[in-house]
Specification:
By secondary structure, this protein is α/β, with parallel strands linked by helices. It contains eight helices and seven strands. The protein is 48% helix and 15% strand.
């Protein structure tokens, strides 16, 4: 069966995507920092879908942890899909650039960019060996649009988009997609803008856009989930 590594998989979009892949028979290696929640997620997926799920709590900025994720996937059969979904905001709640702590910006860059590239580098031999290796970098509309207080986070996601674009050029045998999932009701968004009570769609609602990429394997590039959902109707 195909094997996916998903970071930030204990809740939100990462968990919803893990659920959808498990329902399709994928084996999974899941990462998150909250060990108890991650293990509960993994146990539920195994019990419901009968797939093999390995839960490895840790911090993606730790090179040793990234190596453990890839080693766990290798034991399951390889790496067919790598999803960099773990994200850091840089400040909670978000702040204007004049008040953004530089250590917060460094954290966002380390999690959202440096760790994502580090995991790709670790997994690249297995991705190349896969029949249809793919990388998904979870981006944001803040990477392409200027929103007040979203400067640090948006800059990190813009850098992630560029890394994904270059990786797609350098690895023509893979598919490398940067995906803007659009607005979602997640803990990350609630931490970013705690006073915003406007309703937003559940992460599960955008998962079909990610599945469409896996099914149709369009060219490497940047995609917006809402557009994929509309075009797929």
């Amino acid at each position: 069966m195909p094997v996916a590594i998903i970071t930030g998989a204990s809740k939100g979009l990462g968990r919803a995507l893990a659920e959808a892949l498990a329902a399709r028979g994928w084996d999974l290696v899941l990462d998150a920092r909250t060990a108890e929640v991650l293990r509960e997620t993994a146990a539920g997926l195994e019990a419901t879908h009968g797939t093999r799920v390995r839960a490895l709590p840790g911090d993606v900025t730790d090179a040793g942890h990234r190596a453990e994720l890839v080693a766990a996937a290798w034991k399951l059969g390889g790496v067919d899909l790598l999803v960099s979904n773990a994200s850091a905001l840089g400040a909670e709640p978000l702040l204007r650039l004049e008040g953004l702590p530089l250590e917060g910006l460094r954290r966002a860059l380390e999690v959202n960019v440096v760790a994502a590239l580090g995991l790709v580098k670790e997994a690249l031999p297995l991705l190349r060996a896969a029949e249809a290796g793919a990388v998904i970098a979870v981006s944001s509309d803040a990477a392409a649009e200027a929103y007040e207080t979203w400067g640090g986070y948006g800059a990190s996601k813009a850098a992630l988009d560029q890394l994904a674009a270059v990786l797609g050029e350098e690895e023509p045998g893979l598919r490398v997609w940067a995906v803007d999932p659009g607005d979602m009701a997640t803990d990350l968004y609630a931490a970013a803008v705690p006073d915003d009570d406007d309703p937003r769609p559940a992460p599960a609602g955008v998962v079909p856009a990610f599945l469409r990429l896996l099914d149709e394997r369009p060219a490497s590039g940047r995609y917006a989930a809402p557009s994929l959902l509309v075009e797929g109707r």
